[in-house]
Amino acid sequence: MDRxxxxxxxxxxxxxxxxxxxxxxxxxxxVRALVLEKSDAVGASWRGHYERLRLHTTRRLSALPGLAMxxxxxxxVARDDVVRYLEKYAAYHELDVVTGVExxxxxxxxxxxxxxxxxxxxxxxxxxxxxxxxxATGFNHTPFLPDWPGRDGWTGELLHACAYREPTAYKGRDVxxxxxxxxxxxIAVDLxxxxxxxxxxxVRAPPHIVRRSTAGWPAQRTGILTRRLPAPLVDxxxxxxxxxxxxxxxxxxxxxxxxxxxxxxxxxxxPVQDVGLIDAVRSGRVRPVxxxxxxxxxxxxxxxGSRIAPDAVILATGYRRGLEGLVGHLGVxxxxxxxxxxxxxxxxxxxxxxxxxxxxxxxxMLREIALDAEKIARVVSRRGRxxxxxxxxxx
Length: 395
Hints:
Layout: E1 10-13, H1 17-28, E2 33-37, H2 44-47, H3 79-92, E3 96-99, E4 103-108, E5 118-122, E6 126-130, E7 133-135, E8 142-143, E9 157-160, E10 174-178, H4 182-193, E11 198-202, E12 209-211, E13 213-214, E14 217-218, H5 219-226, H6 231-245, H7 261-266, E15 272-274, H8 277-283, E16 287-289, E17 292-296, E18 299-302, E19 307-308, E20 312-315, E21 319-320, H9 324-327, E22 353-355, H10 365-388
Parallel strand pairs: 1-2, 1-7, 2-3, 7-22, 9-20, 10-11, 10-20, 11-16, 12-15
Antiparallel strand pairs: 4-5, 5-6, 8-21, 13-14, 17-18, 18-19
Helix pairs in contact: 1-10
């Protein structure tokens, strides 16, 4: 690329919180950013979440750079208000968002494919060239459905949690929810509150359950204070607090985990914030059961050998990042398909390529997204100045 490429925008792939926050931080530093969003509006993933959903992080600690969330949204912001905020955020910062354009592949630019800069292959045959690309397609991108024996022959209703909206259609029915992360726990409670006849919750590994706030102190602030402390210390403190704040649910089929909270979190197990699960389990409205082993026609066999016949199975089995087709060929992903670096760091073999939104920290995802957006904007702006002044190769 020659010096004229300074006029090319930074391409931000994804119009969710991470993409919008990064574009806004870049714009405030005088860097033109163009957001590519495959759907027809910003915040597409949030629009598709179940209606009951609220942020588990506080309104004040969930705002993106440069615009606070309105106080009228309350402390725990509802799904629809998150969508309104993202729409307002894009308009307030006058972001350049191109909807209906999906990026398929990112590869090095240059006549021989060795750079500098990047070539983005997008829908409609578009070839977009820029010195910098920020990938922000979202943590919850591609629904994951375990391939249990007999699953394809299941004769009842089966859907991933991403397709669940509200409980009306399940009133009076027998439902099995698979997965006891925050999504599975909330959907199970939603079904019980909505009149489902029986709600079972298949549990592979008992989760740590925490109160969303204790005496007005949000769990998120505890996460912020403890995230850099040694895991054994946090494990002990969390265990002590749990014994006082969370009742023992072992008699109901949901024992406390053997491993400490922070140790399990570092292995990928996010604590479940209680928004009704404890009461629903204790009252018998949600019944924990063993994990799914297999399907056989209209029967689900559980790992303890029991056989049940639910009307519907809802899979709260998580997501994959879905980055392999976009950047997997660049050697920038780890064994789990996550970027090897994030924030202000580019992978060693891919200078000028950045990632935002691919961690789920105990301190809050939106907070981390906001911090990383500012870091990315600082380094991109600085490298842009170095390139114009002839003192660096750009990023």
